[in-house]
Amino acid sequence: MKRRRLLTVILFATMAFSTAIASPNANEEKSDDNPFSALIDWGKDTWNTVKDAATGIVEDIGDAINSATSKIPVGTWEFKNGSYSTVMVCEKNGSMSITQTNFSGQTVFTGTFTASSSKITFKVEKKTSKVLFVTTNKNLDETWSIDYSLPASKEIKITSQNIPADANGYNFSKPTIFTKQNEK
């Protein structure tokens, strides 16, 4: 799309320039004493054409960015494994958490993330574990790689060597379907 617009701009500029050179007297009635008025008019027309094409290219780039970012897995995603669950939350502001819940407590990993069209990079900064009445906090400096795809509007398929197995022993290095939870 960008190349087509650029080629169009070049084509119009070439046609306008060749027209200005081929017919130097075309704008003579406008110009009483300036022999360069045709060239000045050509320059203004070319500038307007280039400006319009550049505006269109910028709009196309903006649309492409919006399309790409709309595929980033923002939201709350849950995987249930019997009575155990793993919930992944990706916020628009770049924060992320993974919460693993079992019958006696939960473990929460928090941090920030970046995402491409198929990979989430989760910078884990903190781990909070709650077992019965005891809470422990641990600062972390880990980077987890999570491959993903969005096979359906309410599903995300996750594969990661880094996400710890849940309390039921489920290994997330196998492709795992999480379902999107309704936003509250």
Task: Please describe what this structure looks like.
It is a single chain. This protein is of the alpha+beta class. It has helices at 2-22, 37-70; strands at residues 75-81, 84-90, 95-102, 105-115, 119-131, 134-152, 155-159, 176-180. Strands 1-2-3-4-5-6-7-8 form an eight-stranded antiparallel β-barrel. The longest helix is centred in the N-terminal third of the chain and has 34 residues, at 37-70. 14% of the residues are buried. Residues 66-70 have low confidence and may be disordered.
How is the topology of this model organized?
Layout: H1 2-22, H2 37-70, E1 75-81, E2 84-90, E3 95-102, E4 105-115, E5 119-131, E6 134-152, E7 155-159, E8 176-180
Antiparallel strand pairs: 1-2, 1-8, 2-3, 3-4, 4-5, 5-6, 6-7, 7-8
Strands of the largest sheet, in order across it? 1-2-3-4-5-6-7-8
Shape: elongated
Low-confidence stretches: 66-70
Strand content range:
35-45%
Helix content: 25-40%
Q: What is the number of helices?
A: 2
**Got a strand count?**
8
Compute the separation of the termini in Å: 40 Å
- Reading the helices and strands in chain order gives HHEEEEEEEE
| Computed Rg | 29 Å
Task: State mean pLDDT (0 to 100 scale).
Answer: 81
Largest sheet: 8 strands, antiparallel, barrel
The computed structural class is: alpha+beta
